[in-house]
Amino acid sequence: MSWFTQTLTSSIGKKLLMALTGLFLITFLVIHAGINAMIFYNDGGETFTHWGHFMGTNPIIRTLEIGLVAGFLIHIVDGLMLWKTNAAARPIGYKVSNPSANSTWYSRSMGLLGTLLLIFLVIHTAHFWIPNRSNQFATGEELNLYQMMLDIFQNPLVVLIYVLGCISLFWHLLHGFKSAFQTMGWNHIKYNGLVSFIGTAYSIVIPLLFALMPISIYFGWVS
Amino acid sequence: MSAGNMHIKLKVWRQSNTNKGGFEDYSLDGVSPDMSFLEMFDVLNEQLIEAGTEPVAFDHDCREGICGACSMYINGRPHGPLRGVTTCQLHMRSFNDGDTIVVEPWRAEAFPVIKDLVVDRDAFDRVIAAGGFISVNTGNAQDANSLPIPKEAADDAFSAAACIGCGACVAACKNASAMLFVSAKISQLALLPQGQAERSIRAEKMVAQMDAEGFGACTNTGACSAECPKEISMVNIARMNREYIGAKISSTAV
Ligand code: FES
């Protein structure tokens, strides 16, 4: 193995990949939430569609999208690999354990929360991204994503799934954001307060913003 | 040791090479609140020997919290309910009369059970042997003041060096990760001028050995640091990550 693959397949290398792809996905969520929040203009989807069209057709954005898919795949596969090594490191567990005495439940449940998010991601992309890109590929035309949102979020079960997805995202980010900085070695008396503040604020604001979208459409606040 | 009046029920993991192990229930009278946890086990073992049965095997040596030999998972936590103490420094006053206390060995693939509560922690020694040392040329010792060391660096190195290698971090971690231990051993040398010669190769080799031993990776839950009897900080893990990645990027070892 070359030094490069050796580094990336080491325990610290795998963690670093998780941290870097995690932070990359965190920046993506800002853009995703920002553009989707245009529906709150409540202008019949005009502003949203304008920006959606830009994101769906701009060649630079479309190229970056390949990186985004890669980011997701690396984060998922690497996470599964870490889960496997970590599970193998303790084949026989304790009969009596009291982990809440020393750590938070969500920091210990990143794999579980990640799996829930993966299930959500499959449902979510099947709703919007996959049909839209397939249609673009087949006919060159974009679908009316705004109308699709209005239709899909009439179903209370779908709204519930999206809200649960956002709740999983909140807990995943609440640990993941700060954890990524620690893994990158960014643990410093001058910056820890800032990282912690931004991490907590981000974990609340972004999932809340996302959750408000299906809720607002379902209750007819946005139409 | 004054005889006390506490009554304690114990569920202790018993295992020898020939069986898969399981809990044995014991009942102890006359336990003094001033006894250490290990002294309570001495009383138990005296009873077992008098009854002609096999005493419980457990690790211990200094019994004053400095050697890192003692290693019991007590009521679901390494070294029991108190923070910043080893099992030998834990006293029965931390428990109530009539309590049932569950005692298990450390659990990790890299720490196989030898007998009862004794696990094999040689993996730690092999990690140290891989790079946790400095080279010192023979000859006269140089003047101490010829090596200027900032007070902060000396303090941080000393805090990391407080690690006694007991393995509570591994025992506490949901991934049985040894990163707190390894990072303390890397940090105590990386922070001092004497550790500079082997600085990058040390990080590379110790992490490689840690992985080879089958310890898990870190999820930054902080359980290790919370359970560490020497309260080693997670700052060390961040430093190890910097040392390792930096070494991998810049060292000439390919
Ligand atoms: S016996 Fe030495 S630290 Fe407990």
Order of SSEs of chain B: EEHEEEEEHHHHHHH
Strand fraction of chain A equals under 5%
Of all protein chain pairs, which has the greatest interface, and how many residues does each chain bring to it?
Answer: A-B, 42 and 48 residues
Count of individual helical segments of chain B: 8
Tally of discrete structural domains of chain A: 1
Keywords (chain A): Membrane, Transmembrane, Transmembrane helix
Transmembrane segments (chain A): 16-40, 60-83, 110-130, 152-174, 194-221
Protein name (chain A): Succinate dehydrogenase cytochrome b subunit
Organism (chain A): Dyadobacter psychrotolerans
Short description, anyone?
In chain A, 77% of the residues lie in helices and 0% in strands. Chain A is mainly α. Chain B is built from eight helices and seven strands, in the order E-E-H-E-E-E-E-E-H-H-H-H-H-H-H.
Describe this protein's structure.
Chain A: One of its GO terms (cellular component) is membrane. Chain A: Keywords: Membrane, Transmembrane, Transmembrane helix. The complex is a heterodimer of chains A (223) and B (254). Chain A has ten helices and no strands. Chain A is an all-alpha fold. In chain A, α1 (3-9) crosses α2 and α2 crosses α4. With 254 residues, chain B is α+β, with helices and mostly antiparallel strands. Helix content of chain B is 34%, strand content 13%. Chain B contains eight helices and seven strands, in the order ββαβββββααααααα. Chain B has a five-stranded mixed sheet. A two-stranded antiparallel sheet of chain B has the order 6-7. In chain B, a hairpin with a 2-residue loop joins β6 and β7. In chain B, α2 packs parallel to α5 and α2 (122-131) packs antiparallel against α6. The model of chain B has no long low-confidence stretch (mean pLDDT 95). The interface between A and B is large, with 42 and 48 residues. The site of FE2/S2 (inorganic) cluster has 13 residues of chain B, from loops. Residues 60-63, 65-70, 86-88 of chain B line the site of FE2/S2 (inorganic) cluster.
